[in-house]
Amino acid sequence: MATGGAPFDALSSLDPETFAGESRAVINFLADYYRDVDTYPVQPQDLPGCLRALLPDAPPENGEPIDVILEEVRTHIVPALTNWQSPKFFGYFPMNASTAGFAGEMLSTGLNIVPFMRVASPAATELESAVVDWMGKLMGLPDRFLFSGGGGGVLHGSTCEAVVCTLAAARDRALSRLGHEGILRLVVYASDQSHCTFQKGARIVGIPRSNFRVIPTSASSGYGLTSDSVRDAVEADVASGLVPLYLCATVGTTGLGAVDPVRDLGELARRHGMWLHVDAAYAGSALICPEFQHHIDGAELADSVSMNPHKWFLTNMDCCCLWVASPAALTSALSTNPEYLSNVTEESAGAGVVDYKDWQIALSRPFRAMKLWVVLRRYGGAGMRAYVRRHVEMAKWFEQALEADGRFEVVAPTRFSLVTFRLRPRHEGDDDAVDALNRRLLVAVNASGRAFMTHFVVDGKFVIRMAVGGAMTEMRHVQDTWELVREKAREVGALP
Ligand SMILES: Cc1ncc(COP(=O)(O)O)c(C=O)c1O
């Protein structure tokens, strides 16, 4: 173990011996964390400022030993964490960690290369192009999204970033026809279930706020869009001189896991010259199983598709796959070519050379392909399908348990591994009281530290979301959580 305190540590900060020793200490620390995380409260019962009060006002002047630092992580930081890798974490959507994801991340971060252009690291660029093609094939995407089929993909850090890039590409494609002043006429369409990133992205690329249409959905379509409702909105806009620009279809919405009809929306988008984006941030992982691939039937009509391996695909944060049918549409919106980045040889600037700086917002970027490649190599398609199916089965079990207990209702069909439920009203008109009861139920479950869930509101109703998908979640955790929900339902006043 390196000694701390000496002011010169920073001058030999990549000394291989120290690197090996200190990294081993961190890995041992994390292995202990994964071994014990099941016994920690999933969400800490902390008070705001509890960590801040323990930290000095300024950084140390002299470096400290890694074991002292790790001890402080153990005593100060871990107790105030919400433990996303707990097998009883069912909030938001899962953010998977795995041994292979960690190994890939270590390789990426250890090599610490920056593949913003092919010449800046040829192997990283080629690995990225290969790995996004692999993922596209696993998910059954049409060939037009693969490099081998004339399209291509890139690894971003998040769906939010990917969406901004596709909106910029769609905007520039439209403005090349309309002229720049046309931006005030461009309209973006999403559903009331689409992720808020579309609204934010539309603002960032300059679409007037009043030109963002939020199209209502309802229980009758399982909270998916209907092409009739989108068509009505589009036709009304066209009649008033506006220009439909971009339509978002979601496969697996955040609140309820709803699915929009990709083919119907694709046909409509084609008729009106709109860019269609398919957001499969969470449920994209399920699309590797043939039984889920009907959800992207019609994807050949889309312009872009995205999904997050960092959610439910055993790939540590961060990693989002974005595929486009026309790389040129993306790069013409995003490319820059300052002298200090221009390619100096003919081969490096040749046709077909991918410079990923032109496929994203930032210039510098990590070697994410390494991480996804290690995950795919280590677990394989069959392993990943088994992984996804295991969670789907657990979610089905939980849904059936809810249905068998007359006090609960399942709010939207459980299509993947997200279960949405609530205690049902006992009388006509007691909706407010039932909302309050469900709120108390969620608070009680989370306060127990024995599970963590989040909520959503649909049709004015407070709904509890249980997103199964943790790397360490087993059926027994789901069964224990069901017992917990029943116990807390009794405590908050739901009649037995
Ligand atoms: C359907 C959907 N789209 C987009 C996002 C945003 O993803 P990111 O956090 O990678 O930007 C989420 C996040 O949960 C999501 O569920």
Automatic annotation (TrEMBL):
Q: Does the keyword Nucleotide-binding apply?
A: no
Q: Which domain of life is it from?
A: Eukaryota
- Biological process per Gene Ontology, one example term: carboxylic acid metabolic process
- Cofactor requirement: pyridoxal 5'-phosphate
The transmembrane segments are none
Q: Per UniProt, which keywords does this protein have?
A: Decarboxylase, Lyase, Pyridoxal phosphate
Record-linked InterPro entries = Aromatic_deC, PyrdxlP-dep_de-COase, PyrdxlP-dep_Trfase, PyrdxlP-dep_Trfase_major, PyrdxlP-dep_Trfase_small
GO MF terms held by the record: carboxy-lyase activity; pyridoxal phosphate binding
Question: Could you name the Gene Ontology cellular component terms for this entry?
Answer: cytoplasm
Family, per entry: Belongs to the group II decarboxylase family.
> Mind telling me what this protein is named?
Uncharacterized protein
Q: Which source organism does the UniProt entry give?
A: Triticum urartu (Red wild einkorn)
Gene behind the chain: LOC125548916
